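Progress report, Aim 2. The chain analyzed during this reporting quarter is listed below.
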Amino acid sequence: MANYALRVPESLFDYARLVAEEEHVSMNQFFVTAIAEKVSALKTEAYFRERQAKGDLAAFDTWLAASPEAAPLAGDELP
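Predicted structure tokens for the chain:
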């Protein structure tokens, strides 16, 4: 496991301490979880950008044109 000295503004640190206490976790666990959530969000964004880059709008239009005409299911209607 690695160590990293983190400088945090006092106001943010105080709020993080409050939240950690409310969640019944240590400050270390709070910061590790916060970092993990941010990394996860960035990786998810990168994944969808990669998927978007592989998309083919012309192929989608062809697939959509081949779809049967059907009324939307209840709750799926446009406003």
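The mean pLDDT is 94. DSSP finds three helices and no strands in the chain. These observations will guide the mutagenesis work planned for the next reporting period.
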